[in-house]
């Protein structure tokens, strides 16, 4: 199983939207997909049309083995571990646990043969949620809203990623996907160009367009692939899923070839 932490300290950049719809596109390609809601606001939980009953992410972080009983089917032929507001209190409780950053990693290892992809929706903050997710992940995927202020935040994400690589997860890879892209504006084009210049090889070729359809889909508990399967948004997430699959296959092949950990040094092959 490959684990992606969808992270950004800025809110409203498309983290939950990307988690759900990238997952749905991977599921459409025949992959077994698990979504983890690490946000106490429970936006992902609500968007996939699943009530937070039974065991939730709070239980999993306190007792990693409980993940075996916390996974439920959800929209888009995926599965999910839900979240409630109680999760905020659990993050405070983690301070009392030795090595709290590894709690999610322990849980993820227990279900590693049950799924092909695990996508973690993180809250817009640097907390136990983010450190747990990035410690457990193979890839930190940063949705970059195509606006200047979001571009400034990339340096913060790079800093956090470097810190995680030095402390709890040396094999973590960093990737960026441009979201809310309006090709009609020079500003959006400039932001995307600057992101690719600053992070060569780390920004996916696929860009996610700004479209009302992506905002409407969660209101009816559907993915964009269900709600508007022929829309630009659905097309974009299918293309992103294809890029993700191709890169993961290339990365796995490079590790087999070198017999070493390529980690963050691995660059996405040219399109």
CATH class: Alpha Beta
Structural class, by secondary structure, is alpha/beta
* Approximate shape: globular
> What is the CATH third-level topology name?
Rossmann fold
Strand content: 15-25%
What is the CATH superfamily? P-loop containing nucleotide triphosphate hydrolases
Extract low-pLDDT stretches. Answer: 262-271
Major sheet: arrangement of strands: 3-4-2-5-1-6-7-8
Mean pLDDT level: 89
What is the terminal-to-terminal distance? 25 Å
The CATH architecture assignment turns out to be 3-Layer(aba) Sandwich
Order of SSEs, N→C?
EHEHHEEHHEHEHEHEHHH
The percent of residues in helical segments reads: 40-55%
Based on CA atoms alone, the radius of gyration comes out at 17 Å
Q: How many individual helices? A: 11
Description of the molecule:
By secondary structure, this protein is of the alpha/beta class. It has one domain (2-258): Rossmann fold (3-Layer(aba) Sandwich). Helices cover 44% and strands 17% of the residues. It has helices at 15-28, 43-47, 57-62, 87-93, 103-110, 128-136, 148-167, 186-198, 212-216, 224-227, 232-258; strands at 2-6, 33-37, 72-74, 78-81, 117-121, 139-145, 173-181, 203-209. Strand 6 (139-145), helix 7 (148-167) and strand 7 form a beta-alpha-beta unit. The protein is globular. Residues 262-271 have low confidence and may be disordered.
Q: Strands, helices and their partners?
A:
Elements lengths: L1 E5 L8 H14 L4 E5 L5 H5 L9 H6 L9 E3 L3 E4 L5 H7 L9 H8 L6 E5 L6 H9 L2 E7 L2 H20 L5 E9 L4 H13 L4 E7 L2 H5 L7 H4 L4 H27 L13
Parallel strand pairs: 1-5, 1-6, 2-4, 2-5, 6-7, 7-8
Antiparallel strand pairs: 3-4
Helix pairs in contact: 1-11, 5-6
């Amino acid at each position: 199983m490959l684990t992606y932490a969808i992270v950004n300290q800025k809110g409203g950049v498309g983290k939950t939207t990307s988690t759900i719809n990238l997952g749905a596109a991977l599921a459409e390609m025949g992959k077994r997909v698990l979504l983890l809601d690490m946000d106490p606001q429970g936006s992902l939980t609500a968007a996939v049309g699943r009530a937070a009953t039974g065991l939730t992410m709070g239980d999993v972080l306190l007792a990693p083995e409980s993940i075996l009983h916390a996974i439920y089917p959800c929209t888009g032929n995926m599965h999910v571990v839900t979240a409630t507001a109680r999760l905020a209190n659990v993050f405070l409780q983690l301070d009392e646990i030795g090595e709290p950053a590894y709690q999610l990693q322990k849980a993820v290892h227990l279900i590693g043969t049950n799924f092909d992809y695990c996508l973690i929706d993180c809250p817009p903050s640097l907390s136990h949620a983010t450190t747990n997710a990035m410690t457990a992940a193979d890839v930190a995927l940063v949705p970059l809203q195509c606006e200047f202020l979001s571009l400034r935040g990339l340096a913060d994400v790079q800093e956090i990623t470097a810190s995680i690589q030095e402390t709890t997860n040396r094999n973590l890879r960093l990737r960026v996907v441009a979201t809310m892209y309006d090709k009609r504006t020079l500003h959006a084009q400039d932001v995307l160009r600057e992101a690719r210049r600053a992070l060569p090889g780390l920004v996916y070729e696929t860009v996610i367009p700004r479209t009302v359809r992506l905002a409407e889909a969660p209101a009816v508990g559907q993915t964009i692939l269900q709600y508007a399967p022929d829309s630009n948004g659905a097309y974009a997430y299918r293309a992103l899923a294809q890029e993700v699959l191709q890169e993961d296959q290339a990365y796995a092949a490079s590790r087999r070839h070198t017999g070493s950990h390529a980690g963050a040094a691995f660059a996405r092959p040219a399109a």
